[in-house]
Amino acid sequence: MQATSKKVITRDEWEKKLNDVKIRKEDMNKLVMNFLVTEGYVDAAEKFRMESGTEHTNPQLFFHLQQQRLIELIRNGKVEEALEFAQEELQSFLEELERTVALLAFEDVKNSPVSDLLDISQRLKPQVMSMLQFLQVKAMKKLPSLLRMLLWAQNQLDEKAAYPRITDLFTATLEDPAI
Length: 179
Fold this sequence. Notes:
Layout: E1 7-8, H1 11-19, H2 25-38, H3 42-52, H4 59-75, H5 79-89, H6 94-101, H7 120-158, E2 161-162, E3 165-168, E4 173-175
Parallel strand pairs: 1-2
Antiparallel strand pairs: 3-4
């Protein structure tokens, strides 16, 4: 029986190696933008977009974020600012824009024919669309193959080293190597 010696990698060494991984600024910006959009931080997402040059990949989602910004201006009584914003930012989505701007025509917007725009469900639309897009496009297509690659890589590494191994894929719990 031949004894094989595996290299032992401690948790500190493992975490140092992980910290040495370089992440592209573009990828980090997309991650931040996704978080801002998913969590509904419309103004922050817009400012981040302008400062970082990161674009929304879904034009419909971008419109709904802009629409929500317009609705909030109207809700807060900033009529001139709302009209200016609508003219400058939202012309490509004219039909929905017209419905939204119609809120300005009514003194009692809560009882107007377009009052549904003031409903909480309207506020949630960008977050829901973003989450659906994220889950459907990113996670559902890539996650299974990424998990298979992780398991394959761990199996390959098991033959050569003892290292902090992920034992629970749902929580990414690390198990310290047996020394």
